[in-house]
Design brief:
This protein has helices spanning 22-30, 32-36, 52-61, 67-82, and strands at 2-5, 85-96, 100-111, 123-132, 137-147, 152-167, 181-197, 202-217, 234-247, 257-268, 278-292, 295-308, 316-317, 333-334, 336-349, 352-364, 376-388, 393-402, 405-412. With 416 residues, it is mainly beta. The chain has a single domain (2-49, 89-412), classed as Beta Barrel (Porin), CATH 2.40.160.50.
Length: 416
């Protein structure tokens, strides 16, 4: 979750709702815990049940217990086996001129789907809700399951919400003041994905998403400001897509080595229920390297391309998903985007940690339109507090400085 500040005022809003893709991307932000653990790590839950032969040896070495004692021991063992997961609860305050003041609450359960499966990463189920005093509301439910010794991965999510926010328009030029309009968005979202392992670290599979959306401008439109196209006042948006992933990381929650390559392609078409026809492509590469004990160097590069009759809420959104920190979500958006960043992570002592990060990126209508004077650099530092020692799930607070001001980001899990 990112909170932004302009050159004139502190604005703590951010990735909770993306002004450009507000309703759809609100789902991702509402499932922040899920995003933080979306991919795999067998390291955190790699310990399976004790070997049966070893159990027999241990039991034979002990004197024979009485029937009552045996029942008590059996009950204790069963209770320990049932405690196979971790609960994560994180309240996050919201204070923003765009969204008002309120609270973002995340609750999740991270668990081993099958205790005898020592290969699959941990699965999770989560719920999140948000509300502010300007009428913004959102509720999201989701799950990601790793099955059959990581042969299958599936994600399902549902969301319903309403967001009242300020929208900076499309094609804003860095350094120039934006013409902000008060925008109201509401809708329901469904997302489903199933991937299958086709190699040691490679997964591929189909995905489907459906969104019923409504948008409007509150008050009279400002001269030169954004106006909602008539086709987007009330519309359905649906897509069939493909997700290709290669993951060699040693952890889902806090990787210290390995890489993650993600490619998604979503095809919005009338044949699957979409009013507009367009395509969205995203490619991202993350790398992690442990340079010293409890110190990790992490880096990320990504690109986004939206083609066809793209609605304003599905353009490439700069600042979303922490690409790059230092910008309020929705300040800059267009058909093309790239971002690159690096972060140094220190797991200091007990539950505390620190990070430093820097990055650069930009948005443009076409790839040929990018210019050096239009780049959007950002950087800053952050504090980490370990919510779950077993799985190394962090509560993070980052302050970042960008070309247009500064942001305060609060969330669960690492930025990437």
């Amino acid at each position: 979750m990112a909170f932004g500040r302009s050159n004139r005022e502190l604005s703590r809003a951010g990735n909770l709702y993306a002004p450009q893709a507000a309703v759809r991307r609100a789902l991702a932000a509402s499932l922040l815990i899920a995003i933080s653990v979306m991919t795999h790590s067998s390291a955190a839950f790699s310990q399976g049940l004790p070997d049966a032969k070893q159990q027999e040896q241990d039991s034979s070495a002990q004197p024979e217990a009485k029937p009552d004692e045996q029942k008590e021991e059996k009950a204790e063992k069963q209770e320990k086996q049932e405690k196979r997961g971790s609960f994560i609860i994180a309240p996050i305050p919201i204070s923003s001129p765009a969204f008002g003041s309120g609270l973002f609450l995340i609750a999740g359960y991270v668990f081993k789907f099958n205790q005898e499966d020592a290969v699959s990463p941990p699965s999770w189920v989560g719920a999140a809700g948000a509300f502010t005093n300007n009428g913004t509301r959102a509720l999201a439910l989701g799950t990601r399951l790793y099955l059959k010794e990581n042969k299958y991965q599936t994600t399902i999510a549902l969301m319903k919400g309403r967001a009242n926010l300020d929208f900076s328009g499309i094609g804003r030029i860095p350094g120039r003041e934006a013409v902000v309009v008060p925008l109201s968005l509401s809708g329901e979202i469904f997302f489903g994905e199933l991937m299958r392992n086709i190699g040691r670290h490679t997964f591929i599979g189909p995905r489907y998403q459906f969104r019923r959306l409504a948008a409007s401008i509150n008050n009279e439109p400002r001269p030169g400001g954004f106006q909602v196209p008539e086709i987007d006042l009330k519309s359905n948006s649906a897509a069939l897509g493909l997700h290709l992933q290669r993951d060699t990381r040693n952890s889902t929650f806090y990787p210290t080595r390995g890489t993650l390559l993600d490619f998604t392609a979503d095809f919005f078409d009338q044949s699957v229920g979409s009013r507009r026809e367009y395509q969205s492509y995203k490619l991202a590469y993350n790398g992690f390297r442990e340079v010293a004990k409890r110190q990790v160097f992490a880096y990320r590069a990504m690109g986004c391309s939206a083609n066809g009759s793209v609605p304003f809420y599905d353009l490439c959104l700069y600042g979303f998903n922490s690409d790059v920190r230092g910008y309020t979500t929705g300040e800059f958006q267009n058909r093309r985007m790239f971002a690159a960043q690096a972060e140094y992570r220190i797991d200091w002592r007990k539950r505390l940690g620190f990070v430093g990060f820097a990055g650069v990126g930009g948005v443009a209508r076409n790839w040929s339109d990018f210019r050096m004077d239009g780049l959007l650099p950002g950087g800053g530092a952050g504090l980490r507090f370990k919510l779950d020692k077993k799985n190394h799930i962090n509560y993070r607070v980052d302050i970042a400085f960008g070309r247009e001001g500064r942001t305060l980001s609060i969330g669960v899990g690492e930025a990437f």
